[in-house]
Amino acid sequence: MRKLKGTVKETAKQKRERKQEFAKMRQQINTIVIPTFAVIFLLICIYVYFKTRPTSMQYA
C-alpha cells in the first residue's frame, strides 16, 4: 500500500492537546528553568567574588 505525500492533517482535538502541552512547557520554563539558571549564576558570581577579593596582609 502506498503512502500519501504530505503530512496528515491533525484534528481539532489533537491541535488543542498540542497547544496545551506547549503552554505547559512554557510555564515550566518560567517556574523551573529560569530560577535554576539564576541560582547557578549567583553561585558563580559569589565564587568569583570570594576568589578575587583582596586578602588582608598581616605583617609579623
From TrEMBL:
Membrane topology, from the record: Single-pass membrane protein
Region span, Disordered: 1-20
Family statement drawn from the similarity comment of this UniProt entry: Belongs to the SMCO4 family.
Pfam families reported in the protein's UniProt record: DUF4519
GO cellular component terms, A-Z: membrane
InterPro entries found in the cross-reference section: DUF4519
UniProt feature, compositional bias: Basic and acidic residues: 7-20
Protein name (record): Single-pass membrane and coiled-coil domain-containing protein 4 homolog
Principal location class: membrane
Transmembrane spans: 29-50
Domain of life where this protein originates: Eukaryota
Compartments where located: Membrane
Keywords from the UniProt entry: Coiled coil, Membrane, Transmembrane, Transmembrane helix
